[in-house]
Here is the input.
Amino acid sequence: MNFEMTDDRRMLSDTLNRYLAGKYGWEHRAKAAYQAPFHDPARWAELSELGVLMALAPEDQGGFGGAGFDITAVFEALGRAICPEPVLAALLSSRLLAAAGADQEALLAGAVHHAAALGELDAPYDLSGIATTARKDGEGYRLSGRKSVVYGGHVAERFLVAALLDGTMALFDVAASDAEVTPYGMIDGGGAAEVFLDAAPATLLLAEAGAAVQDALDAGTLALCAEAVGAMDVSFDITLDYLKSRKQFGTTIGSFQALQHRMVDMKTEIEQARSITILAASRIGTGAQSRSVSMAKNLIGRTAKLVAEDCVQMHGGIAMTWEYQMSHYAKRLVMIDHQLGDTDHHLERVMATRGV
Amino acid sequence: MDLSYSEAERAFQDEVRAFLKDSLPKDLSDKVRANIELGREDMVRWHAILNARGWLASTWPKDHGGTGWTPVERHIFEEECALAFAPRIVPFGVHMLGPVLLKFGSEAQKASFLPRILDGTDWWCQGYSEPGAGSDLASLKTAAVRDGADYVVNGQKTWTTLGQHANKIFCLVRTSKDGKPQEGISFLLIDLDTPGIEMRPIKLIEGGHEVNEVFFTDVRVPASNLVGAENQGWTIAKYLLTHERTNIAGVGFSAAAFEQLKIIARKITRGGRPLAETPLFAARMAQTEIDLEAMKITNLRMLSEAQKNGAPGLESSMLKIKGTVIRQTLNDLTRRALGPAAAPFPSEDLDGNAALVPGDFANEAAEYFNNRKISIFGGSNEIQRNILSKAMLGL
Here is the structure.
């Protein structure tokens, strides 16, 4: 048994943490996350050069990673910095392109932004209810429908769209210029878009895309879990520092037992969340992938909310302010539960499937 | 045991409902329902409507222009207002300074300030907390030093809610460093136009501007603006705290929030099925409904006690703790209900075709984050637990 990262992943993780601490520090993040285009193109290019995207894909796709632990190494570092760069969109897209056997050199180089347009207003988590449809049109296809809260859609040049072709979920490639895209910033930073397709010309990538889409969602969900772990660790550290320095009633507030016990409980929950994320990462590529990822996302959803709320509460008013980092970590931690399936959605998935 | 209102109380409830139906402007209730920040004019307008009806000062006796209502009548009024999505009465003048002046103020102070609160001439804000004095309010440092006929005030206040709209501020200031910290605090009324005062906005977690920092540099305040005796400020502050307590559970707001939750949970569908009918979400709603029903009765039990004894008991700290948790849970569920569509930044203009959520629900995530404050301000829930364990349980 060995819970250490491999040397390669440790190096990637260290490099990334150092880069983000230096180049994506607090002030920079505050600007990039909340002002259009809701990320920093120059930093995106540098992150790509560092191999952030290559780490997400296996060697046969042109990357150097792609395993569960590669994904968690990258996203835990992104979570520590609550970095708003659209890496999740790239991960989802990379998995989809790999399944379709399509070239993804431009994606992994960070040269072309891709976004996976999967969820819809009425089918945000469970994609069996999507209503976007495809019809044959000469050599190609045309897509109609609306894709909602497409992560990375605000900068995407290509959309990978899940649509029904004769009642079966298929995957298509649509140029952003052929769709009507409404970009926006998000409450926790970063951007997304509404994507309206009105007989938009499309290229078929996969006629039966159900399994590929589920695999992409699993990988993306694991990534969000790791991001949350990184953000929870930092939230905990910020709060612990505050409890040790903030004085009220003539003493540090960390000397109060009521807060000490809550901190210990919180730390325990964070370790549990880290463990379930490690478990899920280990199951990527196995038959237990989906169920394990859902278990992780359910526990992450519960823990991230606890950490966000308790860290703010134990700080008091200061953590309610925009100027104080903790408020932004709290927003990110809570809003992760709104991405790729919330606590309830993933609990349902765990309930509906037997363990292996 | 009889859980129902008396006949007179039911008649009063009908009267309140009729008034709200006739007199609450729709543009105001629409904003409140959608959690859109109200402007100064909105709040002033609602105060004027209530004042014209004689219903603004529900904590004051009749001979000073108040309603003279019993705690139960006050509760009925507040609950009906919340359910109708009426703007909140800005509490600082009406519910905080007013009762203080009535109890501790000089005749001259009552005559000069009370009418101006009712007619909207003055907008008061509160100068209590300081960067170094939050939960430990008694450690406050803003100093008022007597100099002839004036006090000279230096220091900094923070979390001054809606101070950007105010022309006056009531402050707790330090007038003595002798004895226990509580014994050297005074209650001082300050005109915000006085030279030496600077107010700076604090941007909150969700991006809104609701609270401020106030800086005092050599601010001269006439000694006649001292309320009560010098160094009596802590007694006054504690009196104010008990006065604040009757509506502390916010049951009306929670009941209104639950109605909104029911609406959104029926409108939002997942794969064609209303969210309200999906087992896990329905369970969350039902659990919260149970907590809320119990809270309503707990609240009434304490009101009934207050009606008998004249003031709410220590148990009001329980109402604060449980009431805020229930409201926050309702905010949590409404945000959750929206799924990914809760994500856009509240200022994003996603109307019409691009709208992600039905009508009133675009600010729900922001409202959830903003309402994390309710378990922090007015004595955090941790402080309430300290009060309860010490004073109620003798621990």
